[in-house]
Specification:
Helices cover 58% and strands 0% of the residues. The protein is mainly alpha-helical.
């Protein structure tokens, strides 16, 4: 089993798709269901959501938990990471967070 490496450590080294792949989707899933956690905070930072927008990002992840994690369970991990990146970016646009967060799209 891979060691659990905080997402923020990968921010300097890789693109967002790789960072999501490296981090256990189980941990992200658990934290998204709660709307909080160190990996969700790090992911928020990677999408450029700081300060008050971090809370908006956490709420968005919690509200979208079924779609982001339950609906994608049967998809292989690489494709799931790509879809997760795409869907988070899409949700940020739908929630009008695009002008508040300086996110990076790997799509």
């Amino acid at each position: 089993m891979l060691a659990q490496v905080p997402l923020e450590l990968w921010a300097v080294k890789t693109g967002i798709l790789s960072r999501i792949t490296v981090c256990s989707t189980l941990i992200l899933s658990e934290e998204a269901a709660q709307g909080k956690g160190e990996h969700i905070i790090a992911l928020s930072g990677m999408f450029g959501c700081q300060g008050e927008y971090q809370q908006s990002f956490e709420s968005m992840m919690k509200g979208s938990y079924p779609h982001l994690f339950l609906d994608m369970q049967e998809i292989d991990s690489y494709e799931r990471a790509h879809l997760l990146d795409y869907e988070i970016n899409r949700l940020m646009e739908l929630n009008q967070m695009g002008n508040k967060c300086t996110y990076i799209s790997s799509s």
